[in-house]
Amino acid sequence: MSLPSWQDPNYGSMIRAALWLETEVGEGNIFTKTRLRSDFSGVSQIDRRIRDLRTHGWQIDTRREDPSLNLDEQRYVKKGIEVWIPGQIKAKPKTSLTSTQRAKAMQQDNYLCRSCGIGAGEAFADGGQAAQLDVARREVLRADGTTEQQLVTECNRCRTGGRDRQEDVPALEAEVRGLAPIERKALAAWIAADQREPGILERLWGRYRTLPKESREKLARAAMDNEA
Length: 228
Prior knowledge:
The protein has helices at about 15-25, 35-40, 45-50, 100-110, 155-160, 170-175, 180-195, 200-210, 215-225; strands at about 30, 60, 75-80, 135-140, 145-155, 165-170.
């Protein structure tokens, strides 16, 4: 079935923007803000209408979610609710976060990406642009089998790969309870400090793996002699 025209003035600007993405851009393709504003010349706040589509399940990435994009570019990733069909727009949308919610979540997370630990403005190890932090929703499985969405701070790189991630908290709790006392004590110390420094065994293992074969054999003998 053919779609209505995105140029039909009987539709609101958000619906027209959705139809434009479907017919003029296509899923997976990139469009620029310049092109958007040119095609919707005379339509005020068309950028905001594009953002409004996200609350109806449309995935439209900016440079924040996809570092390969330029500042003027966005990628239409996935279609959401077909907002041009009467009644569909009333489907329950995802609620937008307020500035207060974002600020509180970032403060609770010590202004660090909870996946990789990088801070806002810090450079990634492989170079490139500085890290940008934002607040994402993470689906968490609870003990009663239900799920809820909780807020977590992530950088623009980690957020891109974790959209469908779900955390099984009861399973993690069970693993913690199954640790040996010395292991649980070490974990508790890392949690209290909100960081983990590698222990001497980890450092030695890392150095061992970088050694040439002859040197690895010497270190292996030292380890076995010490064990004896």
